[in-house]
Design brief:
Endonuclease/exonuclease/phosphatase domain-containing protein, seven-stranded mixed beta sheet, 3'-5'-RNA exonuclease activity, six-stranded mixed beta sheet, Endo/exonuclease/phosphatase, 5 helices, Endo/exonu/phosph_ase_sf, Deoxyribonuclease I, Chain A
């Protein structure tokens, strides 16, 4: 057996990220439709839609180390069930829009807790009194925005994510909600001693691009851009409209959006509006999920160097030799077993340090 050194996962990831100065991030917004017994024509119960929703969320985020999921119209039990189904490596922030934290609909933000640390969170109401449960202007319901600041556990880079749901009736309420959203985004983007790399906003705005609220959010002085405008139209994936209803009788519309403040802070790579129904005829929701991939600016000045215990790594050479030597570690056919959680990102030619491994010949074991 030969003991050598290899780098920790975190150290390797830091080296890769620092070299490229940017890190990938996927963001998704999805109005999942609240669970109701007063269902529309063709609408399936929540217990039928739930597993399909989870499968879609898992599929869309699988393989993406830094995904954020902005949801709307979730009741308390739906939030808890989605959390349970996604698993312990996910966490969420948010509360209901009613008087009590569990009352009314949530606009939660789900994030990977093994990748991001939530350092600040708040829910505000879209009204004249945003610090307390309240209804704004001509809105027929309380409306909220969930806001979170997240720190990347390896690099220390911070991002701000909002999830919101504007009123479906009140025109004045939507207009003033747009103005509040711009105000909150500016406040959160500059808050604290560590400026956020990006401020990302997802939600159901009940406002089409021709409407006043949308135009206010994307006006030149707002500093906010529609993510879809930052990807050439011919490179968009999927559908155009985001609201479909559960059947006939409703006009499809584009009312769900992803926005970014100060788009120069990120390179937007993809944009798509995904499907909400498939061959079995079940629609997961009356909305479609909207998704985008970005490369955000990495803050290398605040790189975090996590303390990790050395990990034992076994390289098993599947050769015909009757003995094992240190040179075995350089051979291409190796079986890698890590005793620490998480994937190991390494290069055959990388600088090996900080961890120990043993080389064992299969014919001797």
């Amino acid at each position: 057996m030969t003991q050598l050194d290899i780098p920790s996962t975190a150290s390797l990831r830091m080296e890769v990220l620092a070299k490229h100065q940017r890190m990938p991030l996927r963001i998704l917004t999805f109005n999942v439709r609240y669970a109701t017994n007063n269902r529309e024509h063709n609408e399936k119960p929540w217990d039928v839609r739930r597993p399909k929703l989870i499968n879609q969320l898992n599929f869309v985020t699988a393989g993406h180390e830094s995904p954020f999921i902005c949801l709307q119209e979730c009741l308390n039990h739906q939030v808890n069930e989605i959390q349970e189904d996604l698993g312990s490596h996910w966490k969420h922030i948010g509360r209901g829009r009613g008087e009590k934290p569990e009352d009314g609909e949530f606009s939660p933000i789900f994030y990977r807790n093994d990748v991001w640390k939530n350092v600040r969170k708040e829910v505000r109401w879209l009204s004249k009194t945003p610090e307390k449960p309240s209804r704004g202007w001509d809105a027929v319901l309380n409306r909220i925005v969930t806001m979170g600041e997240f720190e990347h556990r390896v690099t220390g880079t911070r991002v701000v994510v909002f999830s919101t749901h504007f009123d479906h009736i009140g025109v004045k309420a939507r207009q003033h909600s747009a103005e509040l959203l711009i105000k909150f985004a500016k406040e959160w983007g500059q808050a604290g001693d560590k400026k956020a790399s990006a401020v990302l906003i997802g939600g159901d705005f009940n406002s089409e691009p021709e409407d006043g609220a949308y135009k206010t959010i994307t006006a030149s002085g707002s500093g906010i851009s529609d993510v879809s405008d930052l990807v050439p139209k011919h490179k968009h994936y999927g559908n155009e409209t985001t609201y479909t209803s559960f059947g006939e009788g409703w006009q499809p519309s584009r009312i769900d959006f992803l926005f970014i403040q100060e788009p120069r802070t990120a390179h937007v790579k993809t944009f798509g509006v995904l499907a909400n129904g498939f061959d079995d005829g079940v629609r997961v929701s009356d909305h479609r999920p909207v998704v985008s991939d970005l490369d955000i600016v990495l803050n290398t000045s605040i790189m975090v160097h996590p303390d990790e215990e050395p990990s034992t790594v076994i390289f098993a050479h599947q050769g015909s030799s009757g003995h094992t030597s240190p040179s075995t570690a350089t051979l291409p056919v190796l079986t890698l077993i890590l005793s620490t959680a998480g994937a190991m990102q390494a290069s055959r030619t990388g600088n090996m340090h900080n961890h120990r491994y043993h080389c064992v010949d299969h014919h001797q074991a």
